[in-house]
Amino acid sequence: MGATAVIGAQWGDEAKGKIVHHLCRRARMCVRFNGGANAGHTVEDGRGTVRLHLVPCGALHPGCQGVIGHGVTVDPWVLADELGGILAQGRSHPELLLSERAHLVLPHHRLLEEREGTAQRIGTTRRGVGPCYTDRAARRGLRLADLIDERQVREHLRAASRVAGGGFDPEQVVEDLLRFRDRFAAHIGDARAAIAGALERGEEVVFEGAQGTLLDLDCGTYPYVTSSTTTVHGIGWGTGVPTARVERVVGVTKAYTTRVGEGPFPTEEGGEIGERLRAEGGEYGATTGRPRRCGWLDLVALRYAHAVNAFTDLALTKLDVLSGLREIRVAVDYRIEGQRVTGFPPRAEDLARAEPVYEVLRGWEEDIAGIRDYEALPSAARRFVRFVEAQVGVPVTFIGTGPGEEAIIVRRRG
Ligand code: GDP
User: Fold this and answer.
1) Which CATH superfamily is domain 107-184 in?
2) Which residues does a 6 A CB cutoff place in the pocket of ligand 1?
3) What is the pTM of this model?
């Protein structure tokens, strides 16, 4: 009971969706606190595969309310599409609560993202999320609560159209927004109070992080980062509920590393290994379809993620993707210009020059797909898990052994 956070420990796409879905089986609430439709979480269960961008993953479970905190940028058009897709699969309408303080992503945000060239420069997902956060910080955004005032909405859109120099019909957007307001009127409210109330009653609440620690605006590999707080600290930032209420922090990491977009990636493997990880792991972006850059597990980065988030547990996902490799490399340190470095450099330029110091572990031949019992893993796979635990100093409680919701090993608790 109490609050659990699920936080990406790498550059996002760590398969958090599946871990959140698993942890929400008995939860009352699943809360998104950061990011927006630039997130892409995949859940594969008995009813099929769903890719979610805004709806919290846990809300696919009946009885688990999906809450969108004020730190999330809400794109009403994406949300409506997503709900349409969920209903088309024969699922029931998720129970949703959207914070009235959350900011709206509007058409000019996408146009500005294209025009400013951030999509090209740092490889963003082109969802208009960055410019929406910019407006929020510049205190000129439009929030869900503002939809109550039609005149304000109309003025806002007309001004936005002037700033963007056209490219959309402001009157049409106003119509869409008012329709959205009327449809969701019962689901827009005080999310902070609702979460606090659930915690007060001792109900189980899961906070679902989007993106990963290394993409955090401040703690990540700046400037190749996203524009929100992706770490555990994002909970207070993006919901107004004290982060101290979180009892359990699950850091999610793949058994290897991937990155989408630009920016330094010390353990990247451009050749055969990279190709193999991409093919076996299906490493293509859930939001953009872009091929992900792939490489070995980076324990320098993972130790840093633990230092930032104080993980109580690790979820090691996609272990099955490593099956069949004769040897598995794991970076334990970096070397920059011949000097051994154990910390995570703050400057992207330094990280780009970092050469990983690898520990080479024995691989395993056996197919481990779908294994649910830790003891049934080959001894080399268990040694890999123990190595990660010892290096990071956090127990690996969950191990992913395949895409499906059942393909998971749960150790000790969970
Ligand atoms: P997220 O954004 O962190 O939720 O990650 P994604 O949704 O982009 O990536 C997860 C993808 O990997 C989905 O297609 C999952 O079905 C799949 N997946 C999740 N866990 C595992 C696993 O343990 N093994 C394999 N092979 N695939 C997995």
Assistant:
1) Adenylosuccinate Synthetase, subunit A, domain 2 (1.10.300.10)
2) 13-18, 40-42, 44, 282, 286, 317-318, 320-321, 400-403, 407
3) 0.96
Mutation to probe ligand 1, out of 7, 18, 32, 47 (largest number of atoms < 8 A from CB): 18
Q: Rounded mean pLDDT of the chain?
A: 94
Q: What spacing in Å lies between the alpha carbon of 42 and ligand 1's midpoint?
A: 6
Residue nearest to atom 8 of ligand 1 (CA): 13
Of the listed ranges 189-193, 209-213, 248-252, 286-290, the least confidently predicted one is 286-290
Strands, E assignment, 23-76: 29-32, 41-45, 48-52, 65-68, 73-74
Which residue's CA is the nearest one to ligand 1's atom 18? 403
Topology of the domain comprising 253-410: Adenylosuccinate Synthetase; Chain A, domain 3 (3.90.170)
For the segment 14-37, the average pLDDT, to the nearest whole number, is: 95
In this structure, are residues 18 and 42 in contact, taking their beta carbons and an 8 Å threshold? yes
Where are the domains positioned within the chain? 107-184, 253-410
